[in-house]
Amino acid sequence: MTDRLRKIDFPAVLYPGVYMTVHVGEPCLPGLELLTPGEVLVMRPEGHPLLGCLVRLDFIQQMAHGANYKFGGLHRVVFENDGPWAVEVQTCPDRNNDHPEVLEHYQRLGTLIRQVPGLPGDLQKLHLRARPGIWMDLLTFNLPLSQPARVWMLAQTDVLQRAQRLVAALENYRPSEKPPAKVYAN
Prior knowledge:
Blueprint: E1 2-10, E2 19-24, E3 40-45, E4 51-63, E5 66-82, E6 86-92, H1 100-112, H2 121-126, H3 132-142, H4 147-155, H5 159-171
Parallel strand pairs: 1-3
Antiparallel strand pairs: 1-6, 2-5, 3-4, 4-5, 5-6
Helix pairs in contact: 1-5, 3-5
C-alpha cells in the first residue's frame, strides 16, 4: 500500500515503537510549523534520500521560546515518489522476528545491556515483553551511536542483522570505555 504523506527532514533518527520529544526553539525545520497533532507524516533522517520512519505527531506544547513536539514512530518506510514537501512511501515490516537465532541474540542483549551505564531502566523492564525488533529499536535509539550507524539500523528490516550488530557491539564494550559508537561496518 502506497500513501502520499507530508515529509520532514530531521537531524535525529526515529524508529518504530519509539517516542521522541523534541524542543524546537525557533522554526529551523521547514514545514514544522504546519504540523497539527494527530498528523501522520514521514520523518527522513538528514541526508538519506530513500528511507524514513512513518511517525505520528502526538502533541505540540507551545513554550515561551519555541515548542515541544512529541513524535511516535510507527513503521519503517522506503520512498517511492519523493516530492519537495510530500512523498509516497511503502511500509517495510520487520523480517525474521521469530527466527531462533534472533531469540538467542535477544536473550544475550538483555544480559549485555546491564554493563552499559545510562540506559533507561524501562529497557530492562520491557525486555522479553516486547517483540525483538521493537525492543532492539528502543535499544538502538538509546545508545550513543553515530548518525550513519543509526541510519543503517533504520534501513535494516532484517531483525537478525540488527541483533547480530548490536550483540557484536555490546560484547566488545568495556565498562571503562565510552558506550559503542558504531554497530555496523563500512
